[in-house]
Specification:
The structure is a homotetramer of 424-residue chains. Chain A has nine helices and eleven strands. With 424 residues, chain A is of the alpha+beta class. Chain A has two domains: 152 residues, Four Helix Bundle (Hemerythrin (Met), subunit A); 248 residues, Alpha-Beta Complex (paralog of FGE (formylglycine-generating enzyme)), CATH 3.90.1580. The two termini of chain A are 43 Å apart.
């Protein structure tokens, strides 16, 4: 990619972030209802800070920070970079205002424009590489922005919609039952997983390495709301036998009785979506469940979740996996698409729609080393206590996802667009 | 007061509330940094809800609520009125927006306009009385608005000013030492305290009743920052001997080492004010201290705090007490005024400037009864675990305060404009 | 009192403490089910530490501490004396064992024996005074021992009895209704309260001083379980209107629905007593309620609690008050006595049986000063956030109580033998 | 094993448990200083309950429970079996007493005696199998007993010894430096892990299955206190770069600055052992560290922890691994043994001495299924959020450990005898 191509990509990626907040009121950009959720205006500032800190500060001649306190306010978790606002207190800061932060973004964009056009040939490779990292980082925050906006609006007693539309048909009383999922067979053996090609990838996808798996059957489609409702009707949330011990404790402590965003009003199920409160769509993929719920459902169904190696190998060796993708951020629906009633016996919706919980803990690949500088904190220090998710969701940018991509969250988290597919 | 006079007073009082938020950014009206502090836009909505609930709903013909969910959102603590948003979660709600709430206020104002002009003679007395209560309630929230705004801006790493001005001279290096405070003698005996005249008062000021006090000496001025600094320099925050046990525990738990809003940068003391961060003004009254700190200072100084009866009797029998008042909200400084270096041997600044902690617990007066309806919850249910404060502050509306007024807060609270005067 | 009389009194008081633990198993002396409750063996050690610290250390020639760490382990709250085990962690210490602590007591007793017989005439007055204080302290811990033992055994799933006996008749189905309580009239006026005579008293009972009270009516008997049950049956624990706001929050947080130690098994009420689980005795005084519950009951009944001044004046001016006392520790029942069905129109059970919650906050008397040394921490530093109780209980030593005695607890505490009497 | 052999083994195993508490005072058996630690008398009761519940209740003719409430008191975590005392409240129960529980054990032993001699041939296989499980369970609690006793005594300000002896020489000032650890090479390839032979094993060790590992180097000895001290002296506990994010948060929250049981008095290091407080033995294996500390040390040292597969394969293919074992419970030292200064280039102390943290999360083996009854809760429901430890420790019974044994704890736990060995 040459300099002008890179800057074009920079521009278009940055604009998407800003478009995502345009349906919001100023007030929506300020609040932080739980620690996991960051205020939208913080996301806007933090992604600018990332470019300022890792590109402008080290490479731009005569660099001066936009504001001396912004590094304190917009540093997320980089101990190398210094002190920062406590994560739980991001929503207590009314200043800088949204307008201040948009100015900060403009100033950063100008800085990056100067940098990309003016950087010496010596530094160009580094700058290009870091810019690509910054843009991937920006894309991760585009997904987080939508995830967090959904939490903010979906936990307001007024249930405001993010976008008004009637594109989500309800299937609540639908009679067209889906056909049963089919199992796709994957032969056991030694395979290579992890990132292998030239393109961009995160350090946690490497080194690529060989793994041994047994014969496997993987469902050709995602688990649906209807199937999950059967689990609920069968007393799934009242029966400890299906649950891991930590999961059962979490359920009792938080009084879980259904997925996040589900509401039962007068015996009828509704679900908050970014289009507002909607009757539950039975044939849509289950979404916003924790690993504990995915695991309990699988246990109840007499099946299991695939490991991350099994998932990745399946996605790689079946050439149709990517072409049968579901929705991505670019589709502008921000909600997973309904499952078709006559699916071919291929893997469907492996990519997009919902992140799929795997059965694997997030651990370093054999031989993994993170870099010794601040960017070494990007992924490596989180490799404990979390589970791997695969495939991206309806709020993931399409060119951001790949088979080797490893997303990770603690097993009790539900605010991501997370669902599942069964194996046996 | 006739109908048009009352509505005029209604209009002017309501406008003051709205003027108070005009220097703010929208973002400032949303956040709630601690449970005690409510988001400014919540104050705007809650005071409208008070008029809607206690006046429009029962007395306005064909009343319809502005929005079916607003009672849930803007009820503060009235169990009679029903369910409500948890107090600690007011700052998690981005909607209704500030604009929505200003519309709500307009609609309420129209309703009150219709009500006052159109209510039957039968209901007029009740409506007039409740309107007066609503306006006193509105005034209390004007003070709380400024108190909470100070907390929001004063805990932001950028220390933004609420109003820009240079009206606060620093006395940090001042050589003009204040003269020592003088003690005014009040003879012991039987006095009547509580509200006696015709005008408006809260139920907690009645019934007026006789009390017996001993001879008393009360300082003619407030304790200053300079005097409090001596307490700090003498190790006051490190020496358990000065402190009540609960106070010492609170100090250790919260790591207190100075009053709220004080900062020591490179050995120099600063104080956040609504005019921004300022060098500490030595001859200004101490402000933003808890009862525990006031009590510890008095103990260190070998003096004591006056009881609420002693304070009220002193304010009533010395005719100059009110004329020597300090600043009120109307002065527009929102900060207590400097103490003059040549004070007359009279009581100064008894009213305005800072609330004065008394040595008295907030308990019902003999024979006190609260009404059986929702408004009975206004004061009565808080009569335990709190201490009485007297005299109003620089953010209290001038016509809101009187000698019998009983303000009350838990002994660990510091975000009010609270200071002290010593007795012996 | 001469030296041998004092030592005799010392001996007999100390023996009572040890007798109180004789019905216990070793295991019972170790545990601390809540922070308020101390392990019985800690009480035994702490009361010895008190004599060692305040008598042996300063006055005994060639004093050496029994064990270098015991001051750390058995100091309760005296900051002057130094570091100590956190209050909540007393129940985590298996050592020193009960036997070690009994040895510590023996050694202390020998030390006191030497001190009393051998101290110089110069120090004799001080030693005699401090010994008397130590014995009063010991008596307070005799009461606490029984209170804490009741909590330990009464919260064990096996409900073991402390003493086996059948002395508590049940009145659950009794038809002999009590006559209604009568109101005794006390004329208003100026009275002196606080300790006046020569004998021992705590510093918080002084200085005696004049107070002004209005005419008063005080019930001639305590509130009964039966009356309290009516409050429960009338929905008292579900109706916020009767409760102070902090009380209502406490009730909801702790899910209170009846007094401490009450259990409803299959629709029948039982009460844990030191004689084991018993059917609820309807005509016994209500016991183990918090101030919040006492206040809510009074509010429901349309009455109020007396202030501490009203209570003390009534007890002092009516000469029969003490002669009509209820049970004390010496009676060995450790449970309040049933109320007689034909009471004379005099004050009954003012002393003994149950501590009576007053309507007064625990504050210093006018002119109160605590001493500057460690013993100044005995009472003074607790004078905030607590309510006064009067009259002693069935686990108070008889010669420990007097009309001016001020007991004090936070308004949410229920593990003391605390009940109430109404006024109007 | 025939009936009399089984009963003999039962008898001897049960006696060991009781011998382990013989050095204790009654008081030591009662307390629970942290939730992880159970009171010793609870362990005694729980292991009896296990036999009563899973053997006597289903198989013994005319079975009657020893006490109707004991199942409530001594059930650990079996939801199938019913309600139970909250884990954190085990230390609040003084009853049943130690003596009661020893009686309970006797009664259970008689029941098992009758059962083993009298059970029908039909049930014999089941009974034999469950008895073996019960004895393995008893052995796990023997280890836990010592682990918990160490915590109880080691956190007492008196630091009492469990056994008095001078068998732990101090190496603090020792000059005989250990030789550097040697790396043993293990060739990569496909190996089988998990339990394969006939003997007893837990369900979590099965199914045995093939795994693929790369070439590996494993240190021939454990990491020592001296090596760990270098990490501390190099600022290891102050430098975030070595730590996983969750580990760094744990360190800061708990103010960790050295392993559990280490104390620095006047610049000299001591370590609490079951023999009392001792100068730190430099050449002893590091013990009582969390996974976070093990991982941080490895990161600082430029090495890594082995995976559980790598560890098990190494222990299996190197025939000397078991013969070079360290200490077990039977040795009666209850402390890991010093590392010899001239070690052969073989794997030493793989078994015994300290549990070795692996780099692997505790997850089900491919094809793992737990049984549907209460015993299915034994292991399976804990398979999330924990890390695997291998090899047993100096408080593990020797015949209880094997190469396929999978122990598991949360990564922040330090009260187990846990240490590490490095790989690369």
């Amino acid at each position: 990619m040459n300099r002008s191509e890179l800057f074009e990509r920079y521009q278009s990626t940055r604009r998407i972030t800003e478009q995502l907040i345009s349906p919001l009121e100023v007030e929506d950009t300020v609040v932080q209802p739980i620690m996991d959720v960051s205020p939208p205006k913080w996301h806007l500032g933090h992604t600018s800070w990332f470019f300022e800190t890792f590109l402008l500060a080290p490479y731009l001649t005569n660099f001066r920070p936009f504001h001396p306190k912004y590094s304190f306010i917009f540093n997320s978790y980089y101990d190398h970079v210094g002190q920062r606002v406590e994560r739980a207190k991001r929503g207590l800061l009314s200043r800088p205002t949204l307008k201040d932060i948009l100015d900060y973004r403009k100033s950063t964009d100008q800085g990056i424009c100067h940098l990309i056009s003016g950087v010496s040939e010596d530094d160009w490779q580094d700058v290009a590489k870091l810019t690509e990292l910054g843009l991937n980082h920006e894309q991760q925050h585009q997904e987080l922005l939508l995830t967090d906006i959904k939490y903010i609006l979906g936990h307001n007693p007024l249930f405001p919609a993010y976008i008004e539309s009637n594109t989500i048909p309800s299937n609540h009383d639908s009679n067209d039952a889906l056909t049963q999922p089919k199992f796709i067979e994957i032969p056991g053996g030694i395979y290579t997983i992890g990132h292998q090609s030239e393109g961009f990838h995160y350090d946690n996808e490497s080194p690529s390495h060989e793994v041994l798996i047994s014969d496997l059957k993987l469902q050709n489609r995602l688990v649906t709301n209807k199937e999950y409702l059967e689990f609920i009707h069968d007393g799934g949330y009242q029966d400890f036998r299906h649950w891991l011990s930590d999961g059962w404790d979490t359920l009792k402590k938080n009084k879980w009785s259904s997925p996040l965003y589900w509401h039962n009003f007068d015996g009828k199920w509704f679900e908050y979506t970014l289009h507002g409160l909607q009757p539950l769509a039975l044939n849509a993929p289950i979404c916003h469940i924790s690993f504990y719920e995915a695991e309990a459902f699988a246990s109840w169904a007499g099946k299991r979740l695939p490991t991350e190696a099994e998932w990745e190998i399946s996605a790689k060796i079946l050439p149709d996996a990517f072409s049968n993708s579901g929705r991505f951020l670019e589709n502008g629906h921000y909600h997973p698409q309904m499952i078709s009633s006559d699916l071919t016996p291929q893997l469907h919706q492996m990519f997009g729609d919902v992140w799929e919980w795997s059965a694997s803990s997030y651990l370093p690949y054999p031989g993994y080393r993170h870099s010794a500088d601040a960017l070494g904190e990007y992924n490596g220090k989180f490799m404990v206590n979390q589970m791997v998710l695969k495939g991206g969701s309806c709020v993931t940018p399409k060119d951001h996802i790949r088979a080797s991509y490893r997303n990770f969250f603690h097993p009790d988290k539900r605010w991501q667009f997370s669902g599942m597919r069964l194996a046996e």
